[in-house]
Structures
1.
Amino acid sequence: MDIVEISEKRYTAKRYDKNKSVSREDLEKLLTVLRNSPSSVNSQPWHFVVVNNATSQNKILPAILDFNHARITDSTYTIIFCIKTSLDNDYLTHILDTEIQDGRFTKPEIIQSMDKDRRYFIGLNSITNEKLHSWESCQLYLALGQFMFAAASIGIDSTPIEGFDAQKMDELLGLKEKGLKSIVVASIGYHADNDSNAKRPKSRLPKEEIFTFV
Ligand SMILES: Cc1cc2nc3c(=O)[nH]c(=O)nc-3n(C[C@H](O)[C@H](O)[C@H](O)COP(=O)(O)O)c2cc1C
């Protein structure tokens, strides 16, 4: 499918068909897209909780605002996008070790400078915990965008969800104890015939208003 076509086809599903499920194989593909998502200085400041709605929706439903319940109950999977509450020394060493293992560095001298630059940049964005968390969240939203676009490209419908109680979600999934914090949620599945949003035309501000060419 052409990229413009995918962008037009993707829309926020409001109602899902419970009888149609995303295959495990397609789920794996979408998780790979999440894993390959770019992040500033390759910080990968995330963790994704994958909820199988057929078996485990009750674990998260109390944290989902009422108007969003149907986006969870009838979809196949719900992904909870989480940031790490801290990017500590052990974690940054772990990232560096992984990059070494993955063969990212051709010359040993690059290793130290990469590590130094990453720590410097993360330091700039960690003046306060709030600043760090907001910077990490930006990386998560990039992953969310890629995820939804990729899903649409293989005919899977999705719903981005901010309408949930993050504190409650963290409690229900024991995220705080794991050094995580939920930021945004997305469900995937196949839309129901009565999903009124499926037929609603897109509404976007005109090109002239949102692009400037210099
Ligand atoms: C970060 C984010 C959070 C959103 N949260 C919700 C939500 O909680 N519930 C919902 O039904 N739609 C939610 N939406 C969907 C938006 O309303 C929708 O993307 C927008 O109206 C544009 O429509 P489209 O996605 O169909 O093109 C969210 C979208 C984004 C990007």
2.
Amino acid sequence: MIVSIIGTRGGIGSTTLLSNLFTHVKKNETSHGWLSLTSPFPPLFAGSSTNWKKVFSFKRYIPQWNNEKCTYCNECVSICVNNAISPLPNGYNIYSELCNSCKTCISACKSDAIKFELTDVGFIEISNDTNFNLHRLNLNEKEIISTWHIKEIFTFLRAYKDQNSTFFIDIPSGLHEYWEEILKLSSSVIIYSDDPFTSDLIYKSHSPRQAKLILAITQNSKAEFEKAGYSFAIPIPKNKIIAFDSIQGKTVTDIDFNAAILNLKKIILEKIPS
Ligand code: SF4
Ligand code: SF4
């Protein structure tokens, strides 16, 4: 099972919510795992992850330029619609983060001066802390996350995790354009929001989707959500104790917060009716 969280805006506390849920679900189960697509890592796990080891590489075919064969005709530069090739004083630079491996430049080069090479553009790493089974995404500098990365991540996790274990993915709030893909690929998605309008967009516009959708909202926005017809939304308390525990990297001790987390845990672990 893969459980993702989408916070509809930054600073709402989705990482705090998911990391506390993760510790509740994990308890004595070592096989459950965490993958952070956000930066920085959740304070709850900070300090416990000093060494990281690659467990997966994102590989893409990127053209490599050959200066011995090149006639400096600039054809590849003009034909690349992604502006991924740029002339330098003594050659050409190919920007892997802009290249979508379309091969057009290779077909256009009459001198056979560009060849595809399978290139590492980032990786997923595991922490050496055996208590948490923590993973993080580490893309090459300037590599921007895309639908392709999201699909690669889910394919990797499905093959990598124990069949009966659950992986929690912390999704950055800025990745709006990939919500649909995440909804398609996750087993459950927690939408965490304080804004009924954005939640409406997710519920009504993102399809097709396969994930079990769980709407969690900030306690303060409960009345607004009820007015908008979302009386089933799970309110999550936010107060000074929760903020303090989170900043200190502790599991949250607030009783109401923990009751909400246990409710989420129950819903996630319930079987989806067929
Ligand atoms: S198209 Fe080929 S020969 Fe022309 S500049 Fe590009 S790499 Fe060089
Ligand atoms: S493979 Fe396509 S996107 Fe990449 S550099 Fe060549 S033309 Fe541009």
